[in-house]
Amino acid sequence: MAGMLRRRTPAPFAATLERERTAPRPTWSALRPANAQPASGAVMPPILEARDLTKVYALGRTTVEALRGVSMSVAPGEFVALMGPSGSGKSTLLQLLGGLDRPTTGSVVFEGRDISRLSDGQATRLRRERTGYVFQAFNLIPLLNVRENIALPFTIAGGPKDQKELVRQVIDLVELTGKERHRPDQLSAGEQQRVAVARALVTRPSVLLADEPTGNLDYTNSGELLDALWRSCDQGGQTIVLVTHDARAAAYADRVLVIGDGRIQDEIELGRRADHSAAILIARLAQVGL
Ligand code: ADP
């Protein structure tokens, strides 16, 4: 399979992006079922695939093996959590999945194309147009209000005709209607992170990648943030990959991949649930010693 992909002459990346612009995108305007079978890679071809990924960092004279052969896939519309202790390789894996960094060996296939060897320009374009990122730090622009922060991707790269409506929809999704003119210092930490989520979603990315997005939030704010992520997935069909060390956050996912020592140690299928109780997940994690 990998050999077949290598032999195929790749379409110019710009042409591929153009074609994909017309492909179905997540939508938050209507409360409709997700556009994919939840929690199953079996029915639809995966939107994102890691094939035997390794990542070795050079640290002076020594090296760190952050990933030691990771293979996984994510179905369209699926919510997948990558869970594991600090230093297990979760962020490294997420960065490779989103084209922020390149693997040492192995490949990442995103929407059917190998993205692990893109040029810097192509990778930048992919990140801007096809993926959305949320990090632990909110990274908002202090002088811009909520609406302006969310519209920033359009300000930088130009936006579609319906960009005002898209901004309105994501503000509604993250429940910040009425706070459009607030600046970040006039918002709670949870509200700021929801602005960051809205900004990541406004371009209707194929995949949302979130790295410990609740890391700086208290219990209540974490819950509201996770609810917003879940709504985007369940109602809008948004594909999500969430990195977390927190079982409560991972319990929102359809499926949890447990990472340890640079490898996938376990896979826990939770299925799509309106109830996000972490009890089942915690019981399973206890069985694998986490
Ligand atoms: P996690 O997200 O699970 O905490 P990371 O993916 O951040 O784990 O890190 C996995 C391992 O790789 C750790 O040992 C970490 O110290 C190392 N590492 C991560 N990034 C770098 C880097 N840029 N340079 C060197 N080592 C790194």
Characterization of the model:
There is one protein chain. Helix 7 packs across helix 8 and helix 8 packs parallel to helix 9. The strands form two sheets. A six-stranded mixed sheet has the order 6-7-8-3-9-10, sandwiched between helices. Strands 2-1-4-5 form a four-stranded antiparallel sheet, covered by helices on one side. It has a single domain, classed as P-loop containing nucleotide triphosphate hydrolases (Rossmann fold, 3-Layer(aba) Sandwich), CATH 3.40.50.300. The N terminus is likely disordered. The protein has 290 residues and is α/β, with parallel strands linked by helices. The chain starts with a helix and ends with a helix. The chain is built from eleven helices and ten strands. Adenosine-5'-diphosphate binds next to strand 1, strand 2 and helix 3.
Write the layout of secondary structure elements.
Blueprint: H1 2-7, H2 13-21, E1 48-59, E2 62-74, E3 79-83, H3 90-97, E4 105-110, E5 113-114, H4 120-130, E6 131-134, H5 146-150, H6 152-157, H7 163-173, H8 189-201, E7 207-211, H9 219-234, E8 239-244, H10 247-250, E9 255-260, E10 263-269, H11 279-287
User: How many extended strands?
Assistant: 10
CATH class: Alpha Beta
How would you sum up the global shape?
globular
List segments where confidence is low: pLDDT < 50 over at least 5 consecutive residues. Answer: 1-19, 30-42
* Beta content: 15-25%
**CATH topology value:** Rossmann fold
